[in-house]
Amino acid sequence: MLAIGDMSFATKKAALEHFRAVLGRSKVGETIDGPDHGQLLALLNRHPDALAKIGVGVAHFIVDVAAFGSRCFVVVRADGSSTDWSYRTAVAGVGRSLLEEFLAAARFEIAPEMQAFKREYFDRYESGMAPCQTTGQMISIHDAHVDHQPPHTFRAICDRFLDDEKMVPSYEWLSAPADNQHSCRFTNETLRQRFIDLHRRLADLQIVEASVNISAGSYGYRSATKEEAQRGLFDDP
Length: 237
Hints:
This protein is of the alpha+beta class. It folds into two domains: 2-92, Nuclear Transport Factor 2, Chain: A; 98-230, no CATH class. It has helices spanning 12-25, 35-44, 50-54, 87-92, 98-122, 154-165, 189-202, 210-216, 226-230, and strands at residues 2-4, 7-9, 58-65, 71-77, 82-85, 129-131, 138-140, 144-148, 205-209.
């Protein structure tokens, strides 16, 4: 049982579904009020960076559009400043490791090419529906993920990059947490371009149904654990 404020959820998955629904029904830029406000405040207090996110105090919450069209919650503070925050991280109650931050940064850097690949695939089909390249099921672009085919899965490419560069994830070349950053990013342009070049050289991409990709996991060596799936570590950019 997971308690968040005066709410109780049987599982973390149930909590994620609840707050995903709040995110989905809230209009971008409008103040979230009523019961949703209190629920989000209780959830934010579970966030591992709650003190920094809350700052001088919470005035209200809004929904904003993050990188590449995804939605996120934003806390507007009493002094007018604001920052984004992840409801997934708050439900999990733990922050991402440096390795997970690196994986997020790597996904951020290749996201434009991944999205272009998806658009080009669906542009071939006038109906707007295209076949999942794993199941053959017709799907819309909104229900599709870009998948890395083995052996060069996304995680395998990331591991190869670290091996080639003989380095471990570090804030010396990754951005530290900051307001409204949305995602960790490469701060070293040379390393950023090397990763993009390696990905272009190795990645063999395909379009699959989102539920198939998330359930299989995109690390390649194994399926996503329940915790990793809940925290969004396998989401398509």
